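Cast an eye over this sequence plus tokens and walk me through the fold:

***
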Amino acid sequence: MPDPRDDRSETLAWRTRLLPGMEQEYTRVHRRIPEPVADALRAAGVVRWRIWRDGITLFHAIETTDGMAEMGRRMALRGAVDPEWDELIATMVDAAEGSYGSLPLVWGMDARRQFDGGSTAGSD
């Protein structure tokens, strides 16, 4: 878990949508993602990535060591890690505009305090 005292750490909530009928297949292939993909994400600064599903809507909580922008930059520098995995996921995820996006923080708490979505503490 990122150290809450480290200003570079960040947790992002992300929403994506599956194409109808892809729920079980998406769940099946995510029982364990390819190790090269997991290794690349870790090397890019991902500490924890969790996905929940409600129907065809997916909710991601992504914790990074140095923020999402830096994680994205590091992944871009690596290039395609597993093009077959990327193609497989693309067959399941709705790429239409509006079917994905970040979720704004409304409220949170940690062991020390509560914070609202406008607080910089929310990115711990």
In short: The chain is about 30% helix and 25% strand. The longest helix spans residues 68-78.
